[in-house]
Design brief:
591 residues; alpha+beta; Creatine Amidinohydrolase, Chain A, domain 1; Creatine Amidinohydrolase; 3 domains; six-stranded mixed β-sheet; Creatinase_N; aminopeptidase; metal ion binding; hydrolase
Length: 591
């Protein structure tokens, strides 16, 4: 069935049920960013494979609302599908709700599947449309009836992590969550988000590509903790271990029925990370307290055991990256290389490292103008062959049992223009500015975002994505609640938080540049003006100096770059062969 035929069938179902507009979010019952195959609804309906977007279908229009990371990709993938790209002005905003209010007549009916929409999205749509006398129904699934070969839920086994890896027991994590519930005057808590469940119970799985999580829900009350997970995914030993920690096991499918019959005075739900169907199933007699999941804030602050593991993991990942870039330089011009083949090769180098489990996201290997697509993913149709010219952007990461990595580097393949050098240098300057920032305790992510962008703004350059995101410990590569972007997110940077710093610059049709390291927030010093913090750079991989225009850097930036590259050599050279260490010594020479 073509995408046009699927759109036709959806519209027919809408007419038969009296629906004037149908909304399809990019999500699942756990409000995940990366989805199991069963819930890749937007891709199945429209062909768009990006990780962020919303489809809205009426009888005379079908649109995909997405942000600037995906504009070029969406235009290409939506061609001939019956869907049009609608460019979001603000990343993550539900601007389609306002469009529906302007487009639909009074008395119209809008519907969506409450299993796929967060409570926050549902509330936003209702707030925009109900005052206009437009009906909103969050209990309509139009896809299951026409998606005949829909994939089943994954059946891969889950496993528990030892406290020597996590640095904190399940019992102490449950106690910490319960303490926050008591302060919020909530008797109970229902957790849908998979990384929160994984952190709380020290459980991992392989149900979602690139994210070591398992499809599950958790209910926590003062005396009780219940894990809802598909039968058979945990071994008898793991079940026994969880029982000993005060965690009961129930079947995954029983979660919604349990919520419908819940017997508690109050329950805490995270509106961003709980689907509307769960919220709407809770009895009206139960007070719902809408707050961020306590575990989200707790897991953002890494403990000393996790930090030690991550530092070790960064060495392993740096070895893999060094081997990859040495291989790339020597193979270029000697054998045919493509965006897809080098991504596979990089995954192979990581797989050689102890404790490697999977990549942490699909590698972005963007050559020439493909580098200007921030979330580009090569396909057989788009796959460029590499030549001895132009820029190559590689954004990649690994999932290890001792940490998660995310790194972006840009290298020259030859014949670089002055514009490319200048752009590269300004992005590097931004990375350095953010990395060496010293800031008062209590500062927020948008302040670090501005510090990082400052040198680029001074030359009238900018980029459309955020400067950084939190990262999990052998968990999701994108983790909240903290974020470095221009929005006024009221979350302070705290000691122990790990965040990316990744400014970029993208010239559509020409080239893209992004230089990304992970940093750890640590205490810096005290003064009469208060406590200050700074960042420890964690990522260990050389930054290419062949592309640097020194005239655009101040001495403080040159010193940072030289010191960083020397540190990279010192950390990695003992783990490399003589030939590899010699190659890296040349790459890390001071400029």
């Amino acid at each position: 069935m073509s995408h046009l035929e699927r759109l036709t069938q959806i519209r027919a179902a809408m007419r038969s049920q009296g629906i004037d507009a149908y909304i399809i979010p990019s999500s699942d019952p756990h409000i995940s960013e990366y989805l199991p195959e069963r819930y890749k609804c937007i891709e199945w309906v429209s062909g768009f494979t990006g990780s962020a977007g919303t489809l809205v279908i009426t009888q005379d229009f079908a649109g995909l609302w997405t942000d600037g990371r995906y504009f070029v990709q969406a235009n290409e993938q939506l061609a001939g599908t019956g869907f049009e790209l609608v460019k979001l002005k603000i990343q993550g905003a539900a601007e389609y709700a306002d469009w529906l209010g302007e487009t639909l007549s009074e008395g119209a009916r809008v519907a969506f599947d409450g299993n796929l929409a967060s409570l926050l999205v549902a509330q936003t749509v209702k707030c925009a449309l109900l005052p206009l006398n437009i009906q909103v129904d969050g209990h309509v699934d139009l896809l299951s009836a026409i998606w005949n070969d829909r994939p089943p839920l994954p059946q891969v086994d889950a496993f528990l992590l030892d406290e020597s890896t996590t640095g904190q027991s399940t019992e102490s994590k449950l106690a910490a969550v319960r303490a926050i519930l008591a302060k919020s005057r909530a008797e109970s808590h229902f957790i849908s988000s998979l990384d929160d469940v994984a952190w709380l119970l020290n459980i991992r799985g392989q149900d979602v590509p690139c994210n070591p999580v398992v499809l599950s829900f958790v209910y926590v009350s003062t005396e009780q903790a219940i894990l809802f997970i598909k039968e058979g995914k945990l071994s008898a030993e793991a079940v026994s271990q969880l029982n000993a920690k005060g965690v009961e096991i129930a079947d995954y499918e029983d979660a919604f029925n349990y919520v419908k019959n819940i017997n508690t005075k109050s329950i805490l739900l995270d509106p961003k990370r709980t689907c509307f169907a769960v919220y709407d199933s809770i009895p009206k007699s139960v007070q719902i307290i809408e707050k961020i999941n306590p575990s989200t804030s707790l897991k953002a602050i890494k403990n000393e055991v996790e930090i030690a593991h991550i530092r070790h993991t960064m060495v392993q990942d740096g070895v893999a990256m060094t081997k990859f870039f040495k291989w790339l330089e020597e193979a270029l011009g000697q054998e045919e290389l493509s965006e897809m083949s080098i991504a596979d090769k990089l995954a192979g180098f990581r797989a050689e490292q102890p404790g490697f489990v999977d990549v942490s996201f699909n590698t972005i290997a963007g050559y020439l103008d493909h580098g200007a697509l921030p979330h580009y993913h090569a396909t057989p149709q788009s796959n460029y062959t590499l030549k001895q010219e132009g820029l190559l952007l590689v954004d990649s990461g690994g999932q290890y049992k001792t940490g998660t990595t995310d790194i972006t580097r840009v290298v020259s393949l030859g014949n670089i223009t002055q514009e490319e050098k200048d752009d590269y240098t300004m992005v590097l300057k931004g990375t350095i500015e953010g990395s060496q920032a010293i800031f008062p305790m209590g500062s927020k992510g948008y302040q670090i975002d501005a510090i990082t962008r400052r040198p680029m703004w001074a030359t009238l350059r900018n980029y459309g994505h955020g400067t950084g995101h939190g990262i999990g410990f052998f968990l999701n590569v994108h983790e909240g609640p903290h974020v470095f972007n221009p929005t006024n997110v009221d979350v302070a940077i705290e000691e122990g938080m790990i965040t990316s710093i990744e400014p970029g610059l993208y010239r559509e049709g020409k080239h893209g540049i992004r230089i990304e390291n992970l940093v750890l927030a640590t205490k810096y010093d005290n003064s009469i003006f208060g406590d200050f913090m700074h960042f420890e750079t964690l990522t260990i991989c050389y930054i290419d100096t062949d592309l640097v225009n020194k005239e655009l850097l101040d001495q403080v930036h040159i010193d940072w770059l030289n010191n960083y590259n020397q540190w990279v050599f010192d950390q990695l050279s003992p783990k490399l062969s003589t030939a590899e260490a010699s190659w890296l010594a040349n790459k890390t020479k001071a400029i």
